[in-house]
Sequence to fold (287 residues):
Amino acid sequence: MPELPEVEALKDFLAEHLVGHEIVRVLPVAVSVLKTYDPPLSAVEGREVTAVRRHGKFLDLETAGGLHLVTHLARAGWLHWRDRLPDGPPRPGKGPLALRVALETGEGFDLTEAGTQKRLAVHLVRDPRDVDGVARLGPDPLAPDFDEDRFTALLAGERRQLKGALRDQSLIAGVGNAYSDEILHAARMSPFKLAASLTAPETHTLYEALRTTLTDAVERSRGVAAGHLKAEKKTGLRVHGRTGEPCPVCGDTIREVSFSDSSLQYCPTCQTGGKPLADRRMSKLLK
Fold:
């Protein structure tokens, strides 16, 4: 799933390629992709893109007159820029193409989604906060006002494990499965540690790991073309998706905990005192 650093890079890429240009056509291909019907999707056609913004993992194309085309790429969605779009409308079918946006220049982009679980979402709204997912977002961890005091206040009283707390979009916007693993590895903390149990020094360490991990990932992604962002993300990850490989810090074997629809990766030596974690469903350390 694209997370804050990749969506931030997509925002910058689209701002460079879209702002000042007119949207001449928006063509939904998959019936599942469009989540709003008022205003109709055709209302954005003929409007100039005036800004591109990011809200957590949401992309927001603002157009003249105040309409916003807001997209969430979900787990298997992606954006593909086309220097020249194919002639004629795309044909509905069983392929990955979900929606096409065409500019007056003949350029544009396709939104695609792999797999059978169609969760990619496009909204046309008058205010981004009209999208429920945007309205529920917590603070952006890279915002200038997201200081350590604010982070401490967010975690105070949180009885959840750190992994779940970091992924909660209503608590902190933009961090998902991959970067929560990376942040916890950088902080040398167990994903199962309770957020409320953190001491002041531990909270400081986690805050620094959060900001540094995300900032470094954004910098690695900056200037990378949209089509290469997935590969850039993978090469920059130190533990997530690297089960069985040596930890780049200590050399121990990276381990995994599997869930019904996802998994987490961690280093026992760096994060859990050398003890491998049990399956999440057991909710305890192996003895």
